[in-house]
Amino acid sequence: MKSSGGSQNDENTFDTYPLTGLEHHNQISANSIEIAKQSELALMVSKQLLTKNYIKIAAARLIEYGDVRPSPTIKTLSKLTAPTQNCPFKKNIKCNIQEKYRTIDGSCNNIKRPWLGKSNTPFKRWLTPFYDDGLDSPRLLGISGRLPNARHISLTVHRSMTSKIIVEQNATNLFVIFGQFIAHDLISTAAGTDINGRSVRCICNKINRLCINIPRPNNDTLNIDQKCMVVARNAASFPTVDCKLGHREQLNLITAYLDLSQVYGSNQHTTNDLRLFKGGQLKATKFQNRTYLSHLSLNSCMDDKQGQLCFKSGDGRTNENMGLASLHTMFHREHNRIAHKLSQINSMWNDELLFHETRRIVTAQYQHIIYNEWLPVLLGKRIWINTDLKPLINGYHMKYDEKIDSSISNEFATAVFRFGHSMVTSTMSKVTYRYFLYKNLTFSNISFRNKEAYLDNGLDGILLGMVTDHGEKSDAIMTKQIQQHLFETKDVNSQTKRFDLAALNIIRGRDHGIGPYIAYRRFCRLSVPKSFSTLNHLLKVYKNVEDIDLFTGLLTENPLPNAIVGPTLGCLLARQFQDLKRGDRYFYENGQFDLIKFTTNQLNDIRTVSLSSILCNTIPDLLTIPTRSFLLNTKTMNCQKIKKLNLFHWKT
Ligand code: HEM
Ligand SMILES: [Ca+2]
């Protein structure tokens, strides 16, 4: 039995069979099941409306666009509302415009369109989708016929022949896992379910419109046990919040904002379950004098013997790897530390006020770390400065714009922000409080497994190990741990079952009707190569430049100077992070709303915070820390000397 995931505890559905690792990872909720059912119905109606004109549509599509974009006929559908009595997206949203704090579900951030960025709303799109029928069927056809098999692309383009050891990267592993932590704040796509609301069971060789299995290609000598990789399509959603007819969209279960929803939850029930309701604190557990998160129920993890249960936080994927769980723990400890200090400074504050003001401060520190430390390493200083992502030295940012849709773009969720998969390492280190290495843990042993969290110095050792280890280079190559052995298990017949994350990313792009790489180069106004001269090695799999899948194309670009990513990735990442800044009324630097803004003293103080200072705050035994924990070989500081938040600026 497994709940549908931490962020959706009020909407639990239960499965009666053991789940695969992928099902552990991908989330569903009662809400998403209902929306998927209604959306599938609406798609059927749309198809019927269009069937009569199908030949005309195909012809129009070819003549007008020369590709598989929706025809004008499909566009007319968007004027029709779906036959549903129960369009959920705008329902029951009541805003208090005097509210100083973010809502838990992200609603009311935008006053005019209060559903923008709310949990359980559809993704936005940068380009109209490239479904084969313009509406719903996965993108399986390209200019030169059937697109290559996703696992074949993975084996040819994304496969490391040896373990990945060539490092030209000076980003730490903390940079990588912090990326995953951010991903789990922004995106949780609703996974597909059957009509009973259970995870879809896909079977090789059995055609099921809910499945998009990847057949085993002939050159796959590694995965001989598996006839195919079973993959369920993600759940369908209406494309608009008005439930108009149109293309198959997908649903984001969590808040789009950088609001630490992975720590606090994306719905009230989850948040209430995490809170202690005393002193503004979050519930915690103690083991050998160290503070841990509280626990999920039995069978939430792969090795959940009593005492080794997995951790509960605001997002259901917290235990995907122990590095990620240690970051959840770090922010959770920081919350409780600040709540405690504030309760001493302002002894008359009640639990509610302490909780929300602490959440506001911790979220501001986190946003500052992303915009001040993480993004410049990722994008390089040029894009970071030119696209207004760099925080100001002083004063308020005054560019909040209510016209900006801060929700996450489907392309960002399905291809762009998955760039981090290529930087994942095959092992994680455990180090002492003085950074001496004493354990090297294989990734699969710390994925949805919790034993190591309670051995030695536990999660502290893992967290500090990420500061000393480098991440892998961002390129097409992925470590075998996730390209060959992801979620590896043996079934009842002792046959090995495992996943390939590169192939999954590619097939997921097709499932969501994400357009090809070249379309996004055009979108970013970058040159469009006519031949493969710059992308030579892709010739082994793709016949036409126009057919390259977005995920694969993005990762084959050469990085920009002093950046981790190339030009198209840089453009698309910057775009989304700009929307998350200028479209967030509660952005920490925003000075346009007197009720919401921090005082100048408070803001300037938040600007002195770094991830290193939070590491020092939350690991009591730590003495020293590198000044910049996303970069290798930076100067080491004494924890006592590092700049920290001065909470007396919050004395009332
Ligand atoms: C550390 C090891 C990691 C593992 C094992 C992992 C695993 C996965 C899996 C299994 C999925 C779902 C694939 C699908 O069915 O479509 C996924 C999705 C995703 N991953 Fe990772 N991931 C890791 C790290 C990262 C990192 C470092 C980043 C970004 C910097 C990242 C960003 C994403 C995003 C944006 C999604 C889409 C989420 C969604 O649509 O719900 N992941 N990951
Ligand atoms: Ca969020």
Automatic annotation (TrEMBL):
Listed GO MF terms: heme binding; metal ion binding; peroxidase activity
GO cellular component, one term: extracellular region
Keywords, in A-Z order: Glycoprotein, Heme, Iron, Metal-binding, Secreted, Signal
Superkingdom of source: Eukaryota
Name this polypeptide is given: Peroxidase
Binding-site residues, heme b: H421
GO biological process, one term: response to oxidative stress
Gene source species: Didymodactylos carnosus
UniProt-annotated location(s): Secreted
Keyword Electron transport: no
